[in-house]
Write a structure and sequence with these properties.
The protein is built from 7 helices and 11 strands. The strands form 2 sheets. Strands 1, 2, 3, 4, 6, 7, 8, 9 and 10 form a 9-stranded mixed sheet that branches. Strands 5-11 form a two-stranded antiparallel ribbon. The chain has 256 residues and is an alpha/beta fold. The chain has a single domain, classed as Spore Coat Polysaccharide Biosynthesis Protein SpsA, Chain A (Alpha-Beta Complex), CATH 3.90.550. A hairpin with a 5-residue loop joins strand 7 and strand 8.
Amino acid sequence: MHFLPKSQMTLSVYLINMDGATDRLAAMTEKLQAASLEYERVPGVNGRAITFPIKEFSELSYKLLHGRRTTPAEVGCYLSHVDCARRLLAGHADLGLILEDDVSFEPDFLNSVDCAAMHPTDWDILRLTTVNRGRKYPFKPLEDGRSLALALTREKGAGAYVINREAARWIVNRLIPMRLAYDIAFDLEYLDGLKAAFVDPQPASQYSEHETQIQSNMQQYKLPRWRYLTVLPYRAYLEVSRFFSRGFQLLRNRFF
C-alpha cells in the first residue's frame, strides 16, 4: 500500500496478469519499479476455461446491447477488473490503481495520481489511459501541465485507472452480471450518479509492444448486422445521455 503525501490518501495497486504471461509480468515489473509502484498481482480470469452459463454474465443482454455472441476473452477481462474492485473493498486503502499488463508510465505518473487525489469530490473514477483520441475538456489544473478533464464522448480502454471505494462498490454490485465489454460498462458511471475524470495529458499509455490478448479473432463473435437493431438505439441513448450528463458536470466545475 502506498501513502500519497499530498492528498494524505492510501493507494493499493492491482496488476492484472494472466497465468503464463511471464514476459508481460517481467516487463511490467520493471516499469512499475521505475515508477516506484509496489503492486499486487491479480491473476487474470481465463475466459476460455469458463463453462457457460454463469450468473456473472448475461448472454441475452450481451447480444442485445453489445451485438456479440458470448466472447470468453472479454468475459475473463471483465471479471478480472471486478476482482480488483473486490480486493480494494476487502482491504483498507482509500483508492485502488488498477492496471492491465500492457501499460507504460510517464515519469510524473505517481505524482499526477496524488495531485488528482487532492480533489476527491471531483471524481470516483480517475482515468489515466484511453485508446481513443476524443477531446478532453480541462476543468482543474494539477501539476506539470496536467489537469483534471472530462470527456463528453465514449473513451475505450481500461489500461490504467484509479477508483475510490464508492466506485468499487458500484463495480461489484451494479456491473454484475456483465452485459457489455468492461471498458464500455465502466464508462457509464454517470447513469448511477458517480463521477469520472481524466488526467490530461494522460500520464500513462496503453500502447504496447505486446499483442492484445482480448481483441484477436473478435470477428467470429460478431452477430449479423440486423441484430444491431437493438444495439444502435442503445448506443445512441448512451452517447446522448453521456454528453448531457458530463456537459452539465463540466459547466458546474468551471463556473460554480
